[in-house]
Amino acid sequence: MATTEGSEPPRTRRNSNKNILTRIRHGQSTGRAISRGTEISEALLQERDQQAQWHGIPVLLQRLYDSSHLNSDLSQIHSIIKEVSSFLSMEAMSFVTEDRRTAQESTYPNIYTFDLFGGVDLLVEILMRPTLTTQMNVPKMSDDLVKDCLSVLYNCCICMEGVTKSLASRDDFVMYLFTLMSNKKTFLQTATLIEDILGVSKEMIQLEDIPNLPSLVQSFNQQQLANFCRILSVTISEPDMGNDDKHTLLAKNAQQRANPCPSHSEVNQVALLNIPGFIERLCKLATRKVSEASGASSLLLELQDWYTWLDNALVLDALMQMATEDAEQSSTESSDESSLATSPLRHRLPQSMNIVHEIMYKVEVLYVLCALLIGHQRNQVHKMLAEFKLIPGLNNLFDKLIWRKQTSSNVLHGQNQNCGCSPEIAFKIQFLRLLQSFSDHHENKYLLLNAQELNELSAISLKASIPEVDALVNTDRNLICDGKKGLLTRLLSVMKKEPVESSFRFWQARAVESFLRGATSYADQMFLLKRGLLEHILFSIIDSGCKSRDVLQSYFDLLGELMKFNIDAFKRFNKYVNTEEKFQTFMTQINSSLVDSNMLVRCIILSLDRFESQIEDVSVVEVLSECSLLSYMARVENRLTFLFRLVNIINVQTLTQENVSCLNTSLVVLMLARRRDKLPYCLNALREKEYAEKYPGCLLNNFHNLLRFWQRHYLNKDKDSTCLENSSCISFTYWKETVSVLLDSDPTSLCAIASYIDEAYMDLGRDFLEV
């Protein structure tokens, strides 16, 4: 069929459209010829627009470019940006509500077209243009124009990661964005865009580089400060390496040697702590009640801002529901204000939204506080958190907000513990992580108790005729919890009621365990034993049917700290595990994953060693003879089996912070054997096991390499060595001596590993770093 004169076949039209796109892409990648669509004539763009389904976006960008000079009419610029924004906003909205699936060109054609034809670069130029001139009397951009520019850029970022990465590479633009945060009217849009940009940035931003950071932060109201914490979270935490190999201790030690200077996140933490009043304001945000959250309801009027601020379907759904129902009410009911004020929606949903709103603020604040607590400035942070009464404040929020009961079955979507999108899940986990970091190896842990509970600890020590620990005596009672229960006791109560499948059980156990970690305190253990914690743990391990390895590991670790050196705990254990069937179930759980349970095994071995030195005590002798767990571990062959397995499941290349405990537990077995002159016996048993398994030299060579790594790793880490000493009640000097004895190169030494490896199988000369 013939075509009309002057027209082209459809095939040629499509090729022509592709030629335009190809020329732009080529120009952007090479820097030659056409690099943005605005360099193409408007006539050609209009001609190709309908066939290519560009919706006039290239033409609008051409007009925007032509009218966006230094002294241009800003109202005209704003009008064009609004028109462009209408094409992009719906694509961005669909992206937010569809769980941010991987963006493709075909999924978001308008945003792709906008970026391809230079829209992103053009908006950056428009925003930054006032900063690039010394000319006076330059027209000032309105707040609405700035907001619309930022919103368009954000819409592009959330749909196309390439746009975000491109903006992240422009340090000048990122720093300029921070200056916009000083304007309350543009703060929200600026904060959301910065958060997305920093999330993909290859290099962590240096907070010190932000112009006038202290005054900027001090100018924020509490609502803005909470939002700013979302940005801070990516500047004070080490980035996730994303590769398991990089998480090995070998790789981390090599990285520390290569980069001995403080990391960017450490420098950023110091910068924050130097801002006057910063920590105090975070503590107030973390502990304020929902009713105190001034201005929380005002944001409900800004629906267009809410969906860009929160990428959470829960909040978005509730906001949209409220807006829809309010609109329907307005059209069908009287306009009488009193009837609207008493409507069910006005009464119910805004309060629910206030709670969610406040919870999401607190998630970000608690994350920042937690990151600071585990940083190098930990002691300084601890002192300030105690001074500003963070713990008593959280205790007062526990029942009403942190672990509040749902009073209605008609709960907002996602507010149950099994829903991954629930803000309450994130809030509870951050709260538990904070408690874990706060209590771990620090004397301030007693701030988690109230006055009555502190008195109870003193009474336990008095009854047992043991001195109170210094940390308890020195606790400032003006800073502890008030009310009928302290925070630790409240946590125990909810922990024992938590369903078996709950995702919180792991974090709850970790938080309670951190209270016990450090130098073993009999009074602390008895305080928890009296509240039924041991029975709860044993039920969870033996009878609950729990299958989660993470939860079981946390319960094993907690049980180890609870029972260590405590004869009463072993009595309670024997009373609960009162049948052979229960005992075998318990041992099966231990043996199913020794990486998870080795800390408990270490506790049992250490406790057995201490009890065997106290045989003049009748009650100890009774427990030694009756407790199935102690009797099992007292058999030498069982301890040797654990030793063999512990050494066999790790090597230098696979050591991580999670499994290095296996190496230390094996060392505990050998240190105790050395005390009793049984070290040669144990080493010979390992040698015989090698030959029985038909791989002579393999196990002992591996153990030799592990101990050489142990020397490099621990002899330069004060905290790690203190932890080893506190957890085992064995001086670190004895740890070092035992490792040196085992690594002795003298072939005649009966305590040296080398003496038990036949020369044909010896492989000790190679540097394990090269293995």
From TrEMBL:
A GO cellular component annotation here is: Cul4A-RING E3 ubiquitin ligase complex
| Source organism superkingdom | Eukaryota
Pfam families tied to this protein: DUF3689
GO BP annotations listed: ubiquitin-dependent protein catabolic process
Give the signal peptide, or none: none
Q: Which GO terms describe its molecular function?
A: phosphatase binding
Under which name does UniProt file this protein? Short transient receptor potential channel 4-associated protein
